[in-house]
Amino acid sequence: MARRAHEIKVRLSDGEMKLIGARVQATGCRTIADYLRRSATSELPQPTNRDAEIAEALGQLCFAVNRLDAKSPSACRQLSRNVQELTTALYKWAGF
User: Fold this and answer.
1) pLDDT band at residue 48, thresholds of 50, 70 and 90?
2) In Å, how far are 20, 40, 55, 79 from 25, measured between CA atoms?
3) Inter-residue long-range contacts of 90-96, CB under 8 Å, 24+ positions, other chains counted
4) pLDDT, position 2
5) For a disulfide at 96, which of 6, 19, 53, 91, Cβ 3.0-4.6 Å?
6) What is d(CA 74, CA 16) in angstroms, rounded to the nearest whole number?
7) What's the rounded Cα separation, in Å, for the pair 7 and 95?
8) Strand, coil or helix: what is 41?
9) In 3D, which of 21, 40, 42, 18 has the Cα closest to residue 30?
């Protein structure tokens, strides 16, 4: 490994630091420096937590869409709520 002779200093807000910390954990990187290096070099591992849970939720939504009766406004509203909940979960999972 090449010697790392360059240093970058940056100030972060509490929210930015929390966001980076969540992404470090989600990707399995050892440290923030490891995460930033991998991000910069496109070697970032994919997040591993909640993958199965999100895939299951997507599968359930797809199943619901397949059996959706377009004449049922309440079913459409429920499906819309489910999609919104899943969207929120995906953003949270991704660290946004």
Assistant:
1) low
2) 9, 17, 20, 31
3) 90/54, 93/26, 93/47, 93/49, 93/50, 93/54, 94/26, 94/47, 95/19, 95/22, 95/23, 95/26, 96/19
4) 76
5) 91
6) 39
7) 25
8) coil
9) 21
- Put simply, whether the predicted model's pTM sits higher than 0.90 gets the answer no
Do 31 and 12 touch, CB atoms closer than 8 A? no
**Burial class of residue 35, CB neighbours in 10 A (0-12, 13-18, 19+):** buried
Q: Which amino acid is at 89?
A: A
Q: What pLDDT shows up at residue 89?
A: 77
Residue with token string 């929390």: 18
Residue 28: pLDDT band by 50, 70, 90 thresholds?
Answer: confident
The DSSP call for residue 45 is: P
